[in-house]
Design goal:
Chain lengths: 263, 213
Amino acid sequence: MIIIKTGTYLDLTLLIVLIVAMYYYNKVALAGKLPPLRTIPAIGAITEGVGKSIEENKPVHYAMGASGGQLYTQLLSMTLVALAFLNYISKLCAKYEAKLIVHMPYQAESIPLIEAMVRDGYKSEGKPELFDPGCLRYYGYGALTWTQSVTASYDTEGVGLNLSIGIFYSDCPISLEMAKIKGGLNVGGTGRWIMVYAFAMMCDYVFLGQEIYTAGAMVSENPLMLAGVFVEEVGKYFSYILLALGFIIATMGVSAVNAFFAL
Amino acid sequence: MSLFVRKQLPIIIASILGILMILAYFTTFDIFAQFKGIATSWVVIVSAVTVAMGFVYMTNAQIKMYQMNKTPLQLAYTLTTYVFFGAFMIAGLAYKGDVNSPEYQWWFQNIYGNVSATIYAVMYFTLASSAYRTFVISSIESEALVLGGMIYTLRQIPLFQVYMPWIVPLGEWFLLVPNVGGSRGAVIAAAFAALVVGIRTLWGKEVTLEVSS
């Protein structure tokens, strides 16, 4: 009896490789022996943006995308990264006493997580009294309403820093460009490669694709999160090996290569 | 509420559900496939329940916006939200066929659809203004970007297709070779990062979930 579905053998091998790598790097991380990571300029720009907001007496805006609260799709990982950044920006705003506005996504089921992240940020800086529930803005369903409401907020309240990280579709060009027009410092990124162009064009500092995950781990300053960055590298080497194997076997004209990759 | 119920239990539930989903993907046992079907339908139920919570937060946001800008125009914006909320709700519930009724579909097609299209149209103005800013030649890299972008864009304009026919295959080459080559690498890298976050969540080591619980 076949237990594993045909067509998933390679996927399963990759999963096992990543689990083993995670086990190893978690141990290395807890022992404090992880190699250093290069700095990402956009992380420093977030603090710079908070300072700019205070100088200009304008709020810091945080946006996860109109549909950035997905908790049960393949994009869940980006929601978690966006929440990690939300926690980070809340801490910074609490520390420097800057005004924070969070534009929540239309997936209402993510609201408790978002509120918990912001509350925790203020609490961990020892300033829970500065948390204002009015800073959490929910605009109802759809990218259409989200885009209009966010840009209206930029216009009426001003923008010092606009940090946009998460799941973005065609909602981001309008919001990012409006923040730019209103004089805000745009810092952001998405793991959805198809929308990275908008961030590259409109942001002053951008996280390109995978960088949001790395930056998310860096701002969390948690060793287990940082270990994940090295596990990703193992996955990349695994794909390089597959690529090289496939290239060699295909060049040799072995027809079994198709069957191998269909496993 | 104890620390276990508040912090550990949600993570344990998430891990168990995630492992069951993985088993449904990899194994041939029907029981996991059936579980996946049930869990998927629960997603719809959870989403529907949280609509009420969203309504409360939306009202909070509307009040906040009005308090900051107490003008008749802002009041009109606020009231419009609730007028249309009520109108769509009545159209969705009062007629036979609910959201598939001709009445609801009329509201959806003629109001929501048209406003959506308008917003999408505005997006292209923002793209144009940012493209103007981006396509400033200041380095070798930006020069390459401008050149590639221009050739890629001009290949779709009939005037250039007629008088400069070589631009069409060149633009296609930019689209299919450097663009695909570069983007595949980026997509694979992002996919691995997403996978790692997923495994960490199943492992119960995702710090974000710990903080939020």
